[in-house]
Amino acid sequence: MAKSKIKKELLNLANAGDCESQYDLAFHYENAGDYEKAFYWFNKCADKGFVPGINAIAMYYYKGLFVQQDYKKAFNLFSSIMNELPPAKCTVGTMYLEGDGCAMDAKKGLQLYEEAANEGCGLAALMLGQTYLEGLCSTPINYKKAAMWFEKAYQLEEYESVMYLKDIYAGVYSRGMKDKSKHEHWLDIETELTTSGVYNNFQNLPVQHHHVNSNCTLEWLQEKSGRYYMILDGNIIYRDELLAQNFLINPNLSIYTVVEHIDGDLSNDDLNNLRWVKK
Asked: Mapped to the 3 state alphabet, what secondary structure does the chain carry?
């Protein structure tokens, strides 16, 4: 079936009030870069209580996509659906940790991460692993808990957890966690994922808004320094910042404002090589 016919049928169903068609049409426009029409159709199905649509609108306000950034509105929208959508609960947890649209509350944020992870959100499990691994948000470092949550994240198909597990059992963080058998196990899994093309250390990471199955691919350019960037809607987006904003917890956004490459190689955007630092 031709794409034009598919779009026409979607448009007819969307105009008839079908929420799923409105959502799919919005996603079609978003992939095409038409955020105005995307927002319009996301908002149409959100107004009817369609949870994925509400999540999409919340993300637009959270990221400032097409609309003016409004953390309070995003927080309220995410909160309204977090008991129905674990990823929304994970985002609310992040907002509590960073004080976006609400009073900062690390205990509440981590509690929501744990609930979301146990409800099937892999990103929440990944965040918990990072929290216990690095002692973020005044949480005592606990490598066993970190490994537990990273393994949970892997089970939920958050494959970036593999590089953490590989290093944990290699004894990189603590010699007490060194386990040759487990290290080799995760090394083999990393090799399998790399060979299959599933796992590529985010070297071709797509912009992630609200839809986990996005087929959007981006072309990364490279500065003379080696740092990767792209131009989107007239704005420069750096890959290291995009990775850090999505996958590394920032304990205090007002203090830690710069992403540092630990080894000094600006082309190395492996998550293990990035950290938030003071300007």
From this structure: CCHHHHHHHHHHHHHCCCHHHHHHHHHHHHHCCCHHHHHHHHHHHHHCCCHHHHHHHHHHHHHCCCCCCCHHHHHHHHHHHCCCCHHHHHHHHHHHHHCCCCCCCHHHHHHHHHHHHHCCCHHHHHHHHHHHHHCHHHCCCCHHHHHHHHHHHHHCCCCCHHHHHHHHCCCCCCHHHCCHHHHHHHHHHHHHHHHHCCCCCCCCCCCCCCCCCCCCCCCCEECCCCCEEEEECCEEEEHHHHHHHHHCCCCCCCCEEEEEECCCCCCCCCHHHEEEEEC
What is the spatial distance between Cα 248 and Cα 188, in angstroms, rounded to a whole number?
Answer: 25
pTM for the whole thing?
Answer: 0.70
Rounded-to-integer distance, Cα 268 and Cα 240, Å = 9
Q: How far is CA 222 from CA 96, 128, 231, in A?
A: 35, 32, 11
**Tens-digit pLDDT profile for residues 3-54:** 555 578 888 999 999 999 999 888 888 877 888 999 999 999 999 999 999 9
